[in-house]
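Translate structure to sequence.
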């Protein structure tokens, strides 16, 4: 089944890079990187644009005039949604949890530049309620709001990452590379679910940066069911369940709190490859990959693709533990 899509990436395909220095340093497995952080035609990119291409096409088809979504104060998803909404001529309304401080920084600064309307709350448990109230208020004012769920992770959004996985399969074939593993960070789980549904790489490891392994696995299962119902693809759920590999070991103290191992991974990638990871998502996933290699679960004979999902704006808003000037 075909779904309408508004191209937002600004590139035909995101690059697939071989990380020669990192591979050598880590003792053997060939490591490749799919650069979803480089789809930066608008709003500084990242993984959310893949999902928003489908969701905003739906918003336009439904003749909505505002796009409402939610996240933390420094949400990459909200910033990408604000940019994408502006690009298609819609107004972004963001329900953000946290207390804003001036001067504005990072994603919140960018949201503000893009003229997003803000509704602030201070309790994650009341986020859905606040979102509903905001939608009702917009309707009362005569608007037709389109609601995008947390992380843009619903069935339609997940289709974006099925296409990204298929795009990568072609790149791998062109380069004659057959990976044995792929590693991706996971939060609201649409990225992982799409990547798993769309590719045939034997092992897909999701490093959770938000919740426990079992919670994330449940999200992935229900998203896969929703996505396959939407696309009309038959899903053997018990077979699919066996393929889900999620690890919450690298989460540390919690969502949005950088870990020492993650910061070491940021430094390693910057020094070996000149590539910047982010403190909340990709650094923890890279810390997981490095540890899997150290423990021999991924070994010298393997070929691994690491999905870089973006988020580097977080480098400028967090204080990273243990960092000193090089001397
Ligand atoms: C930079 C970055 N990487 C990864 C993710 C996680 O993707 P998903 O929510 O689809 O699991 C997010 C989600 O906000 C993100 O901002």
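Result:
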């Amino acid at each position: 089944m075909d779904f309408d899509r508004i191209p937002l990436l600004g590139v035909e395909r995101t690059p697939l890079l071989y990380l020669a220095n990192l591979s050598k340093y880590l003792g053997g497995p060939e490591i490749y990187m799919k650069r979803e952080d480089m789809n930066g035609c608008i709003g500084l990119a990242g993984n959310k644009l893949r999902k928003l291409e489908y969701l905003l096409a739906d918003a336009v088809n439904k003749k909505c005039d505002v796009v409402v979504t939610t996240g933390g104060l420094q949400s990459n998803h909200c910033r990408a949604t604000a940019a994408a909404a502006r690009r298609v001529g819609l107004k972004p309304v963001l329900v953000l949890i946290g207390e804003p401080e001036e001067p504005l920084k990072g994603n919140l600064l960018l949201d503000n530049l893009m003229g997003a309307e803000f509704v602030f709350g201070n309790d994650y448990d009341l986020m859905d309620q606040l979102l509903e109230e905001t939608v009702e208020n917009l309707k009362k004012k005569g608007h037709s709001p389109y609601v995008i769920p947390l992380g843009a992770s619903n069935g339609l959004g997940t289709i974006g990452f099925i296409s990204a996985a298929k795009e990568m399969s072609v790149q791998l074939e062109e380069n004659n590379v057959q990976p044995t593993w792929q590693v991706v960070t996971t939060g609201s789980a649409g990225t992982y679910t799409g990547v798993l549904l769309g590719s045939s790489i034997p092992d897909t490891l999701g490093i959770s940066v938000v919740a426990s392994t079992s919670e994330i696995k449940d999200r992935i299962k229900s998203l896969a069911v929703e996505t396959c119902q939407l696309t009309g693809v038959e899903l053997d759920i018990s077979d699919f369940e066996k393929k889900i590999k999620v690890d919450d070991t690298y989460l540390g103290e919690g969502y949005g709190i950088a870990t020492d191992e993650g910061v070491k991974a940021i430094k390693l990638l910057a020094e070996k490859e000149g590539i910047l990871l982010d403190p909340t998502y990709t650094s923890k996933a890279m810390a997981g990959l490095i540890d899997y290699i150290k423990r021999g679960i991924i070994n010298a004979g393997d070929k691994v693709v690491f999905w870089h999902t973006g988020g580097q704006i977080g480098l400028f808003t967090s204080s990273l533990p243990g960092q000193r000037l090089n001397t």
